[in-house]
């Protein structure tokens, strides 16, 4: 149980929170993906002031490690690692898909104990970043890139319902043939990261700063058009 600073810049919405014993006590978010870099440091100063703590009080820094936006992941990772280097504090990383699954569990009664959770992040065309978790957040299918097909996940839906959510789930909803699935809206943020990071802190699951890298799954592709010669 600890005082943590949590940074989530992996997807469209960026957020920062200070959590105490896994519970958010100060939170800020930004809806504009292109502003993640300028948002993070100002938000950190703001949540620390609201919570009544300083950077030196923070016991560890946590970040969503990916998959997600290439630029967003680099922003969050660089910020968290910079503080850890400067303050000699532990560094915690949590996979974005697991954070999304944790958020789904917080949504309420639409999920039963026998369901499987399937977060999906958009990855261009018919590809997504995805994984499968049970309601104890144990991996049934490890995080990976996946090209969606009509019968993707059918073997898992023979006996158990799957709950699909995230930016990539819209594509699968349009083609899925197995009916033992449901699609829900789930918004994850740094508060859900904080819940998982607190457990990691308690179990002393820390990462080496020099060797820690975001989980990209794919090489960076610029959307800028090449100039004609």
What this model shows, in words?
With 229 residues, this protein is of the alpha/beta class. The protein folds into two domains: 3-96 and 188-211, ATPase, nucleotide binding domain (Nucleotidyltransferase, domain 5); 108-183, Nucleotidyltransferase, domain 5. It contains five helices and ten strands; from the N terminus they run E-E-E-H-E-H-E-H-E-E-E-E-H-E-H.
List the SSEs and their pairings.
Blueprint lengths: L2 E6 L5 E7 L2 E8 L5 H16 L8 E5 L5 H18 L3 E4 L1 H10 L10 E7 L4 E7 L5 E9 L14 E4 L3 H7 L5 E3 L6 H13 L27
Parallel strand pairs: 1-4, 4-5, 6-9, 9-10
Antiparallel strand pairs: 1-2, 2-3, 6-7, 7-8
Helix pairs in contact: 1-2, 3-5
Q: What is the CATH superfamily classification of the largest domain?
A: ATPase, nucleotide binding domain
Structural class: alpha/beta
Query: How is the largest sheet built, in terms of strand order?
Result: 3-2-1-4-5
Proportion in β-strands = 25-35%
Q: C-alpha Rg, in Å?
A: 18 Å
User: How is the biggest beta sheet arranged?
Assistant: 5 strands, mixed
